[in-house]
Each structure stands twice: as structure tokens, then as C-alpha cells.
Write a structure and sequence with these properties.
InterPro entries: Cupin_2, RmlC-like_jellyroll, RmlC_Cupin_sf. Pfam families: Cupin_2. This is Cupin. By secondary structure, the chain is an all-beta fold. The protein has one domain: Jelly Rolls. Helices cover 0% and strands 55% of the residues. Strands 1-2-9-4-7 form a five-stranded antiparallel sheet, with no helix packed on it. Strand 5 and strand 6 form a beta hairpin.
Amino acid sequence: MNEPLRCRPPATATVQIDNDDLRVTRWDFPVGAETGWHRHGWKYVVVPVSAGTMLLELPGGQTADVSLTPGTSYERPAGVEHNVVNSGSAAFSFVEIELKGFPG
């Protein structure tokens, strides 16, 4: 995929656990930060640590706005391709749990 040039700062990914069964990563997003385009190889769960507003950039130029509520988790299937951007006015964090037993 040809990603357009960006001037956004990167979000910080801190891998907390990575074993045969799962990978747990904490993501910290300063205002305006992004993950960069990526595709998930496994089914995953996101657990928001703090409130925030995300802009999801999707293939084909589509976008979606998502509000994070601390402690309210959601799941996504393997193969999801996107870029996550902090589009709000405050930093936020979430923990992402990738389930290696559910490949895409």
C-alpha cells in the first residue's frame, strides 16, 4: 500500500507480553499522533485506559470517528487494515491484546 506522506508524530507502542498465545501492547497517543498504516495478523481486543477520540483512516479513503471510554473494550477480526489517529484535544492510551490462536 502506498501511504501518503505524513507530518504526524508517531504513537508509542510498548509491548508488555509477547508469547506463543498472545501479544499485549500498550499504545500511548499524544494529540495528533498516529500508528501509521498497518494490518492486524490476528484477531484482537482493545481495552481503553483513558478517554479519547480516534480517527480511523480506512482503505479507499474512508474514515470513521470512534470515542474511547475507559474500561469499555471492543474486538476486531484479523486482517483489519487501518491507521489510528488521535483526533481529540487530549492524549489517550489503550491496551491492545492480539490473540495468536486466531490468525487472519
